[in-house]
Structure formats: C-alpha cells, structure tokens
Amino acid sequence: MTKIPFYEKVGYAFGDAAANLVWRGALAYLAVFYTDTFGLTAAAAAMLFLVVRLTDGITDIIMGMIADRTDTKWGKFRPWIIWSTPFLGLFMVLVFTTPDLSEGGKLAYAYFTYIGLTLAYTVNNVPYSALMGVMTDDDKERTSLSGFRFAGAFLGGLAVMGFTPQLVAWLGAGDDAMGYQYTMYVFSGALVILMLISFTSTKERITPPVSADTDLKSELFDLTKNLPFIILPLLSITLFFYYRDLNSGLFFAAVMVAMWFVIKKLINKNSDEMSGTQRDMVDLLTNKPWLILLGMGFLTMMLNGIKYGAIAYYFKYFIGDDLMAGQYFVGLLVVSIIGALCTSPLSKWLGRKKLFIVSLILSGLLTIALFWAPQGDATYVFIVGCSAEFFAAILPTLYFSMLGDSADYSEWKNGRRATGLIYSAGTFVQKTGGGFAGALVLIVLAGYGYDGMDQATIENSLPGMQLLMSWIPAAFGFAAAALMVFYPLTDLKQQQMSKDLIQRRLDNK
User: Which CDD domains does the record match to this protein (predicted)?
Assistant: First the structure.
C-alpha cells in the first residue's frame, strides 16, 4: 500500500484550489452576473446553462479517453494540468467581460465564452481528478488525499466567493462590469501559479493495465458512432427540465425506453465483437458501484449547487445586503474546509457508506430549517446554513475517493481499468448537476416573475428564493440518501479488492 507524503497531498490540493477559483466562482456569481450586470433574461440564462452542460456530456467522455491513452515522461494525467492552464485563465476573464454588443450579440458572446470556459475546465479537471486514482493504491490514503483536495477546493472557493463582491466594488469604482473583469484578472493570475505548483509536486505511481487494441484516432471515431448513448438522454432530460410539458415528458420517456433496449442488447453482445469504446461502456454499465455513484454525484451537486446558486439573490433581496453574501460564503467555506478534513477520521469511525447517508440526512434537515428564517435575519441564516454546510462538505470528499474504488472494482472484475473514463463521467455528472442546479435557480425565479432589471418584480419572487435555499435542495439530498442505501462496496470488500489487485500487479511484472 502506497503512502503519500504530506507535501504531495498539499500540492495536489493546490490544483483544486486553482480550479475552484473558476468552478465555485462561476456557480456563485455567474447567474447573477448574467441577469443583473451582463443583461440576459433569466430564461435565456437558464437555457444557456442547460445547453453548455449538454456539450459537457461529450467533451468529458472524450477527455477521459484521451487521458487514459496519453503516454508522456510526466505520466498520463499530469501533463494535461499544465497544458490547459493558460486557456482556463483566459476564458475565466472573458466570461466575466461585458462587451458593447446588441442583445443577440451578447447572447452569442455568452455562449462562446461559457462553452470555452467549460471546455478548458474539462481538459484540466478530468485528468486532475483521475490523477487521484493513480497516485496510490490505498483506499484510506485516497480518502485522506480527497480530504486535502477538497480543503484546497473550498479554500479556492473561499477566495472567489468571499471577496468577489468587495473586489468588484473596489476595482470597478461603481462600474460592476469593469469590476468583474478586473477581479477575474486577479484570480486568473493566482490560478496559473497554483496549477504550476500542483503539477510539479505530484507523482503518478500506478500504471493501469493497457488493453486498447486500437489507436486513439480509431477509438474517437468509434466514439462518434456511440454518441447517441450520451446525447439523447441528456437532450431529453434538458427538454423535460426546461419546458416541463407533456410533449417533452413523452420524448424523455421514449428515449429512456429505447436506451434500455439498446443497452441490454449491447451488454449481451459477445466481447470479441465489441470495439474498445463499446467494451469501456459495457464495463461502466455493469459496474454497479459506479452507476450508483453517478447518481449520487448528480443529486449531491443539485443539493449544494442550488443553494450556492441562490445565495447571491437571497442576500441581495431577502436579507437586504448583497455584500453580506461574500461574508456568508466565507463562513460556509471555512466550515467546508473543516468538514473536508474531518471526513477521513469520521469515515474510519462510521465507514464511508454510513457517513455518506448520515451526512445527507443531517444536511437536508438543516437546509429545510432555512425556510423559517425571518426576512432580514442574517444571524439565523449564518448559524443554520453553516451547520448544514459542515455535512454537505463531506459529500464531495467521499464521492471522489469512492470513484477510485469503482475503478478498482472494474479492474478487479474485468481486468480493465479506464481510470480517466470513470473519473471523467464523475466530473461530468458533477458539472451537469451544477449546470442543472444553476438553471433550476433561474427557472424558479422566472416562474415567480423575477426580472433583474425591474425592481417591481422583486417582492413577488422572494418566496421562490426561500424555497431555493431550503426545501428544493433538501429534496435532492434525501433522494441521494435513499440511493446510497444500495451501494454494494463495504470497507471490508474494498480492502480485499485492493489486496487482490496488488497481488495481480506483482504477478504480472
């Protein structure tokens, strides 16, 4: 079992601190930036969020395949961290830039820059996440490493969410559009430095078995023939989510039934008749731990993403102090860092599965309590919200360490380990959940008549903001707790798999 030095855990954490200068910044302020500064309607911004997440369904899977087949002197995954960093920093600035364009021109610009940002993030973060799966073969060390990672992630998020309102006000001197742009220059510079540290301080130690029979070009061509597996379900969910009418519901149901028959036929197909891409898909579709974690990733991101997407609106209008949103984010993220670092010892005490379920239930109950917060009472919101966030912070920490377990399961069961593909699906479903969460915030606000450019619509939209901070996200948390009951890998089972895999790798040397 490989132990990871302390300095390497810290260096790995710096990578997610950098990524979350983008990720949590976009989740926290992009919606309110689009509606209140950039000038998009809530409905147009919601559709933008959904369309961009649909493209992520393709790019994440492709990036996972590319990373799995990368072979350099720096390893499979580390090179992509440094190669993608300049583009990530560039699009971080461009997304929060407000050009002098027509309404249609602004919408086109928003699509171009937001898709560019998510693509750069994919090229960076899919390999970064997969890197955890090859740094150690010890599941306890992976949980510890995941704790460090998310402590770094929350620290990076703290910088963006805690200080963005003040920096926008200071650097913009009353011009929010310029304030956002200059603020992102600061964060972009920090991102480049942190990513460089993460690249130089980490090491890949596990070399997965190579089983691809064809080159990457052939695999990507083969993937294009299987894109309906990815695109159609996402498209049907997107249409149903956005329009919520009978026609979109019927289309969603028809696609799901058709996909069930196609997947069943593929699974029953002789392995020798399958392409490499199809074998990867079958490995994933028959990997029960991974399938459950896929659902968990989406549901937990909806739990956290809805709240984070609503906070800027909630504090601006329900509490009555938009600058206090930054202070609230600081409080949440300080608690999140503590929660992430407590995950490893708590998982040793309760076991990861039980800890996951307990954290979901307690976070959901405390989140519901925010519904009864008196208008303007920030103290109540800080106490209850930060309490809920301690348990919510445990969820992504456990999630990404357990994705490594599902990669172990695939190798243990099938002799194939597509680490990049497994983690790419994990990061994709997190980003999809974040996109749907942001879109749901805007859809609910639009349903209550919210218009960021018309103050007369604010009063009627306050009940929607209350629901977005309480009952709506909590419902996703309780659904995730119910799903986690069916997760099949106990800690004892994982330990036995790890021992078997170590012995196999020694025998194959």
Answer: MFS_MelB_like (cd17332)
**Is residue 213 in some structural domain?**
no
Number of Cβ atoms within 10 Å of the Cβ of 201? 17
DSSP string, 92-153: HHHHT---S--HHHHHHHHHHHHHHHHHHHHHHHHHHHHHHHHH-S-HHHHHHHHHHHHHHH
In a domain, 224, yes or no: no
Nearest to 339 by CA among 133, 139, 155: 155
What's the pLDDT score for residue 247?
A: 64
Using alpha carbons, list the distances in angstroms from residue 293 to 248, 349, 439: 27, 21, 22
- The total number of structural domains in the chain stands at 1
CATH number of the CATH domain containing 396: 1.20.1250.20
Taking 50 as the pLDDT cut, the residues of the chain under it are 211-212
Determine, yes or no, domain membership for 217. Answer: no
What pLDDT is recorded for position 173? 83
Q: Distance between CA atoms of 91 and 84, rounded to whole angstroms?
A: 11
* Helices 419-447 & 378-414 angle (0-180, nearest 10): 150
Query: What is d(CA 147, CA 250) in angstroms, rounded to the nearest whole number?
Result: 42
State the helix-helix crossing angle for 276-285 and 246-267, rounded to 10 degrees: 110
- The closest alpha carbon to 157, from 503, 459, 393, belongs to 393
| pLDDT score at 197 | 93
**Residue-level pLDDT at 88:** 92
pTM of the model: 0.67
- Contact 81/120 with Cβ under 8 angstroms? no
Q: Is 224 exposed, middle or buried (0-12, 13-18, 19+ CB in 10 A)?
A: exposed
CA distance 483 to 54: 24
Query: Residue 377, Cβ neighbours under 10 Å: how many?
Result: 11
Output the six-digit token pair for 51: 């369309």
